[in-house]
Amino acid sequence: MKQKIHSVLKCLKCGREYNDHRLFCDDCKDALLRTEYAVKEFRTGKEKNIFRFKTWLPASEGHDTRIGPCVFPSEGFGRALGLKKLHIAFSGYWPERGALNITGTFKDHEAAPTMEYFREKGIHDIVLSSVGNTARAFGYACSKLNMNCCIIVPDKMLERLWLPCKPSASVKVIVLQDSCDYAAAIKLGEKIRAQFNVMTEGGARNVARRDGMGTTVLEFARLTADMPEHYVQAIGSGTGGIAAYEAAIRLRQDGRFGERLPCLHLVQNSPFTLIHEAWQSHSETLPKPASNSEEMQKVQTMYADVLANTTPPYALVGGVRDSLKATHGQTYAVTREDAVKAKSEFERKEGVSINEPSACACAGLKQAVAAKKIRPDQIVLLHITGGGYDRIHHDFKIHRLKPDRIIEGNPDFSSLRSYEQLFN
Ligand SMILES: [Zn+2]
Fold it and tell me: Tell me, which fold does domain 71-99+209-392 have in CATH?
């Protein structure tokens, strides 16, 4: 019997469709692929986790997990801002509310479906370069599924690598010593991928990450039978914005959620605001990158340094610019002071701790309201992408990840015959 096709990947530039897992169209390197699902109707399953949305996740099956999107009406923050219909998507850990992202951020929404998808496609090894949240989420997902994962991290960032469970032996950590920054970690990841034929998690090009992130909009639709009019999120790469837009397109196709797409409000943290600068100046491309040392300096002054991204998928077909265009989107730059103030306001009004990027999102929402880009009676979804770390540390035993290999400079792996030898 012929197996029913769950989904295909479609190039957003030439329209070519693919059945295998891939990050690029054979012909168009400047375009994203998007998942086209066989089922066009919005359906939810009985699962109490992210896999409730598996008809619109590239993994056709799920696994046992408590990770999933959590949406509720705001209690105090909306009132303080004069917004009557503010909803919060809380993608951290807050058990009383049903938010059970165990590593504390929305990266759990990316890692769980990605690793499930890879498992179904027969991919068992991945390599990723990360400064924290992503590594924790993938480290957790791989520990749970016992899949091989190689995390590359600059030594200064090692302290951010912890898991709320015992790490599986399949999770390996390579630490880059001395002045190695995130860019160096990415370069090394690429080298390992190429030499040992290991899959990368794929960043914005990985459809499982985007469709996993988009589940906050789907959860909003499940609970309210509607789409938000405005979607607010702090961004580094902007992939969360693309994901929200793509989820909304699928809901629109269903026909029961109206024609209007949520307007994207994407918030960046000064001084690292490439997307904001490009969008505000109506530029088709990002500003020319600063020198490495200038960029490092900028990152050091940021409040939410995980939002620093030098190569966001802005100008790609189907990327951030196209998502902003299609939704009449807005961008914002918020300072450290804005974010600190908004953080304490949010935490006081809603009664939960949030992380730095979420504080930036709150500050961006305040700007949008002050500039009348969002009216008091409109339906708003504010994505709090991480929070509740204090509760995670209280509720779980925290395990710090230890280096399996420490590397200095630009290593030569030519004598190694296999990926496994990296750790022998
Ligand atoms: Zn193409």
Answer: Rossmann fold (3.40.50)
